[in-house]
Amino acid sequence: MSFQQGLSGLNATSKSLEVIGNNIANSGTYGAKASRAEFADVYAASLNGSMATSPGIGTYLSSIAQQFSQGSITATDNPLDLAINGRGFFQVSDGASPTKYTRNGQFKLDRDGYITTNSGLKLLGYEADLGTGQIRPGLAVPIKLPTGGIAPQATSKIDMQLNLDATKAVIPAIGTIDFVDAGTYNNATSVTAYDDKGAPVALTYYFRHTSGPSETSPSDPDIWEVYVTANGRTVFPAMAADNSAPQPMVTLEFDPSGGKLAAFTPNAAITDSDFDAATGANRLGFAIQVTAPDGNGIVPQPIAIASLAFDVTQFASPFGVTDMKQNGFAAGQLVSIGIEDNGIVTARYSNGQTKSAGQIEIANFRNLQGLQPLGDNLWAYTHASGDPITGVPGEGNLGVLQAAALEESNIDLTGELVNMITAQRAYQANAQTIKTQDQVLQTLVNLR
Predict the structure, then answer these.
(1) Residue 285 burial (CB < 10 Å; 0-12/13-18/19+)?
(2) pTM score, whole prediction
(3) Do 151 and 192 contact (CB within 8 A), yes or no?
(4) What pLDDT score was predicted for residue 432?
């Protein structure tokens, strides 16, 4: 026995305690990965081939290997907190040095609108077209969130689906409809459209049953007139000074079953109309002129509705609108940001619109053990790790994102405490071998 074995054991056990201490210190660090000290035995070189009987001269620290297993995911209240569930790393950069990689998703928003780490590194991903929100895959760049609002969009399309009650009484068309007198029409419904400046225009549709079968004329068809007003002013005729002589926008004639239209007669002022007699489907286009101001005293601009689609039936059931939608909206301001599990950053505006503001790109490596730890929850790729394999979350073998959540460290605190006790005992045992060797040498010295 020599002092070499015990000394190497003390050094190795000391390194093991350092690794265990580092694990314990980072047990509460989000995105941290546990490290494991790996050792190898040492044999002296021999020229006479007697290695089989050599006792060895101790051990040494072969490697400190990080364990990249998944950590638990905990929910937070911050929408910019991100966790990767599965394989992959966030890519962050300062714009000058090479890209760095992290599992810590504690991101913030800086003064310029960039998503950054606590140390100021910017999160990388794909840009989005500011007008359409279309993601533009390609070279990953720092993601910058929009700070401005969204421009209004004028209404150009309205889709309407409804049923007219076949049991409603007939109101003869000999009298003029009065929009303030509910006795001159059967039903009404409204939808808000928007002009080029985003000013709202309240379109109200009035339905009047002007003809139908009766005891004296059982073969008369069911005919309905549809009128429309914009902010209380009749659209037909356009620019009318008052509502004294409104004209119907369209006249609908149903077949005996009430399931489809037999005839469809639009107002002469309508620029385009299309009617399919086989299916009863119809679509028409027209422009409205609005002279009445809205509730704020603003006079809306004329709106050209290129497509107004009717999907209307006339059954013996109550009047009901089952679908009414239009494609316009007012101007809006940014109110919140959301991040989807595929990494798409969605901007939400005060007018109810949403638009993609970018998409986060993550990276994976063939050999995770080859990554170089840099501290500050960062890694750098090396020749041993291989080049980064990039993609969007959920693509290939890449994990998915979870917003408003963070990945905890994968360090088992209980296991580390047990390992610390084991290392402490190993240290004491190695110290005892040195003490025993000293006693043996002292015995030899005392032979004289």
Answers:
(1) middle
(2) 0.77
(3) no
(4) 87
Place of tokens 């005992």: 425
% the chain with pLDDT above 70: 97
Above 90 in pLDDT, residue 441?
Answer: no
Which helix (H) or strand (E) element contains residue 18?
A: helix 3-25
pLDDT at 152 over 90: yes
Which DSSP category does 183 fall into? G
State both tokens at 271. 């620029």
Alpha carbon 124 to its chain centroid, in Å, reads 16
Rg of the chain on CA atoms, in Å = 39
Of 228, 207, 222, the residue nearest 316 (C-alpha)? 222
Could you tell me what percentage of the chain is helix, strand and coil, using 3-state DSSP and rounding each to the nearest 5? 15, 40, 45
Q: How do 303-313 and 157-163 pair as beta strands? A: parallel
Residue 219: pLDDT band (50, 70, 90) is: confident
Distance CA 369, CA 313 (A): 67
Q: Which of 318, 331, 354, 323 is nearest to 191 (CA)?
A: 323
Tokens for 242, please give them: 């008052």
CA-nearest of 170, 259, 266 to 220 is: 170
Order of strands across the sheet that contains 157-163: 272-275, 282-288, 303-313, 157-163, 320-326
Residue with tokens 């309508």: 270
Q: What is the DSSP string of 196-239?
A: TT--EEEEEEEEEEEE---SS-TTPPEEEEEEEEETTEESSSTT
pLDDT for residue 53: 65
Contact 58, 50 (CB under 8 A): no
State which amino acid sits at residue 136: R
Cα end-to-end span (Å), the chain = 22
Q: Which residue has the higher pLDDT, 287 or 89?
A: 89
Euclidean distance between CA atoms 313 and 281, whole angstroms:
10
Tokens of 17: 């305690």
CA distance 31 to 42: 35
| CA–CA distances in Å: residue 418 to residues 12, 21, 29, 281 | 17, 12, 20, 76
User: Does residue 12 carry a pLDDT above 60?
Assistant: yes
Q: Sketch out the chain's domains with CATH numbers.
A: 3-69+409-445 (no CATH), 75-150+334-407 (no CATH), 157-326 (2.60.98.20)
Q: Which residue has the tokens 């985003």?
A: 198
The tokens describing 107, both together, are 């991101």
- The token pair that represents 215 in the structure block: 């005891």
Residues 441/31, Cβ–Cβ less than 8 Å = no
Calpha distance 358→114 (Å, rounded): 11
Q: Residue 425: what pLDDT?
A: 92
